[in-house]
Amino acid sequence: MAVTTSQPVDRQLQVYENWGKKQRKAIRALITDSLIEEHRVKVLGQHSDDLERVLQYFRRQPQEGKYIGVMTKPWEEYRIGVLSGVRGQPAQILMDESFATEEAVLHGIFLRRIRDLMKGD
Fold it and tell me: Can you name the residues that pair with 67 across neighbouring β-strands?
């Protein structure tokens, strides 16, 4: 008689994954050209309910792979960095584009997060 050992299934992880899929679907539905334009015009400050929901979703993402703004030349040049998720390890700075202002780099990060969200499951 063969003995099979299988790992127990963690239902909490399954429920969380299902919830995450529903959240991504709901957030994708909020992404419109006017929402992107609203963010471009007013990166910081008070936002519409839809934009605030999208921003809150992005803020709750894990640290590993999260985009951050990095000042590479004081008050002249900003780039996007990617966090490793490991404490003490520096962010990887992406060299494909640079920005003149902090607001511009924050909008660039927003666009990358949207791109990543749209290409996911």
Answer: 82
